[in-house]
Design brief:
Layout lengths: L9 H11 L4 H8 L3 H8 L7 H11 L14
Amino acid sequence: MTAKAKRVMLSDQVRQAIKDCGETHSAICDATELDNATLSRFMSGERGLSTPALDAIAEYLELSIVSGRKPVQRK
C-alpha cells in the first residue's frame, strides 16, 4: 500500500506565495485594490477571498494553477 502525498489547499498555496514574494501587504493591496483588512484576515486563515480578489493577487504575483492530475482518457 502506497501512501498518498498530502494535498495542499489552493488558499494555503496562495498564502505561501504572498509570504514568499517579498512584497509588503500594503504594496499588494495597493496594486490589487484589495482592502488591507481583507488581506490580513485571509493571511490569518480567518476568511477566504473572492474569486476576483484571488484573480487579482494571482495576476500581480504572476501565479498560475498547475494540475497534478493526469487527463482522463476518453473512448
